[in-house]
Specification:
By secondary structure, the chain is of the alpha/beta class. The protein has helices spanning about 15-25, 40-45, 55-60, 75-90, 100-115, 165-195, 200-210, 210-220, 225-245, 250-260, 280-290, 290-295; strands spanning about 5-10, 30, 50, 65, 95, 120-125, 135-140, 155-160. Helix 1 (about 15-25) packs parallel to helix 2 (about 40-45) and helix 3 packs across helix 4 (about 75-90).
């Protein structure tokens, strides 16, 4: 099958960048902006993504749907699309590209397949094309080959074949390290701040772990803008580990660290509006002030 029209659910930070890149390479890219935020509408406009009135019309027009959302919305969005496609008497390839566990991917597969559409398990690794990155789209399942038409069109497609759940599993394992490391950095620096040891820790890291400190200085101030979206991702990783017989507690803890970041005023920023002049030290000072023990004591 030749893919001509691609639907993006939803054109957020990653979604609009992917949609824009695919549009540049000749695909007709659509979305449904009904009840979406002003930010999402602005991103869709920036990405040159065409709006359609409802999910039924999207299902009718789209050859392929890319679901690119926060993990908590993956199942509900798949169910809404499946109902709309069934009512419209049409079907499409539906790629769930969200950061969900293999078990959740299987649940979404049942929803989509049960409505007569064809499911692709997906997982995105890498940054948005909106910032010059070329993200890798891992895909698996019996219909994964359909995604290969997008390879080299602003994204890189890695078809790893096999059953549904393999692509989601790769994403879970990879993000357990990258975002899990970010959560550990926040935990370390916040603990040092609470103990009055921030300067001493920074001095030791500058001496013995200079590259790690440099990466943390660039990374940590940006984390609060994404923290709310990453809580659910850490919970999905914890569930993946648990299902594999590995302790889930590391990433349950990571979820708690992102929950702490989401409680700070910096969480009101979006990836587009992050204060890039804010330092690691400034960020951690505020994070420490929002520790539950401090807020409960009135400090």
């Amino acid at each position: 099958m030749t893919i001509k029209t691609i639907a993006i659910l939803s054109p957020g930070d990653m979604g609009h960048g992917v949609g824009k890149a695919l549009g540049v390479h000749g695909f007709d890219v659509i979305t449904c902006l009904t009840a979406r935020s002003d930010r999402t509408r602005d991103l869709a406009l920036e990405g040159g993504i065409r709006d359609v009135p409802d999910l039924g019309e999207m299902a009718t027009q789209a050859d392929l749907v890319l679901s690119i959302l926060v993990p908590a919305q993956g199942v509900a969005t798949a169910r809404a699309f499946a109902e709309a496609a069934s009512a419209a008497g049409t079907s499409a390839y539906y790629a769930d590209c969200n950061a969900v566990s293999p078990k959740t991917a299987g649940e979404i597969d049942s929803i989509i397949t049960g409505a007569g559409s064809r499911f692709i398990d997906g997982g995105i690794i890498g940054g948005s094309p909106a910032r010059g990155a070329v993200p890798r789209f891992y895909c698996s399942g019996p219909h994964s080959a359909a995604m290969t038409e997008l390879d080299g069109k602003g994204i890189a497609v890695r078809d790893i074949g096999g059953e549904v759940g393999r692509a989601s599993g790769i994403k879970m394992c990879y993000a357990s390290f990258t975002k899990g490391t970010s959560a550990l950095q926040v935990a370390m620096f916040t603990t040092a701040e609470a103990l009055g040891l921030s300067d001493e820790l920074a001095s030791e890291l500058a001496s013995s772990q200079a590259e790690s400190l440099k990466r943390a200085e660039a990374n940590v101030p940006r984390l609060p803008s994404n923290a709310g979206r990453w809580i659910g991702e850490m919970e999905e990783i914890a569930a993946t580990f648990d299902d594999a017989g590995v302790t889930p507690y590391l990433h349950r803890g990571a979820a708690e660290m992102f929950r702490l970041l989401a409680s700070t005023p910096f969480a009101d920023e979006s990836p587009e509006t992050v204060d890039r002049s804010r330092t690691l030290a400034n960020t951690i000072k505020v994070v420490a002030e929002h520790l539950p023990s401090r807020t409960q004591s009135g400090d």
